[in-house]
Specification:
The complex is a heterodimer. Helices cover 0% and strands 55% of the residues of chain A. Chain A has no helices and 11 strands. In chain A, strands 2, 4, 5, 6, 9, 10 and 11 form a 7-stranded mixed beta sheet that branches. In chain A, strands 1-3-8-7 form a 4-stranded antiparallel beta sheet, with no helix packed on it. The model of chain A has no long low-confidence stretch (mean pLDDT 91). By secondary structure, chain B is mainly β. In chain B, 0% of the residues lie in helices and 61% in strands. Chain B is built from no helices and 11 strands. In chain B, a hairpin with a 2-residue loop joins β9 and β10. The radius of gyration of chain B is 13 Å and the shape is globular. Classes of the chains: A mainly beta, B mainly beta. The interface between A and B is medium-sized, with 25 and 24 residues.
Amino acid sequence: DTAVSQTPKYLVTQMGNDKSIKCEQNLGHDTMYWYKQDSKKFLKIMFSYNNKELIINETVPNRFSPKSPDKAHLNLHINSLELGDSAVYFCASSQLRDRYNSPLHFGNGTRLTVT
Amino acid sequence: GIQVEQSPPDLILQEGANSTLRCNFSDSVNNLQWFHQNPWGQLINLFYIPSGTKQNGRLSATTVATERYSLLYISSSQTTDSGVYFCAGLNDYKLSFGAGTTVTVRA
């Protein structure tokens, strides 16, 4: 059973297009995250939702819009894609209510390539 | 968020060698994790270790919370240990990552 699953695994698209990445977790966690990993492997948090409420919103262009229909799902929609958006996007989840004892679990990543 | 420094940035090992990776934090953390990113890009949980010492096979980790650092030990390294090792610390709601240590184990 996959704990945190994200789709698609690869996404190749042209500049200016709009695309979405989906994420689902079956761990019963109350918090989900999106991280971006750039070409230098640095992992940076973008957003976090706790029980469908946005709790972290880092300095991310407003072309990126997360949506959490329920606490098991956190999708990422990107408008007007730019070359600089090319990266690997990771979804993750944890139990924030028990954050002192709950490690973060990551999905396998979505490699986005904008041409 | 907190600043996380990892050292060394790169490490080349001969199979069978032992090594230590270090992680320093700029502020206290609520919890701390070590991850291994394998050559396929997957991020694998290694340890959740806010303090103390834990062991898992050939890997072990020690966190000294009062001095704001953590160490990851790899013993008898194997080629499958290659990849990037990240530490990350939770402060408030944010898990902040270090830049990683790239480990290459040669046969």
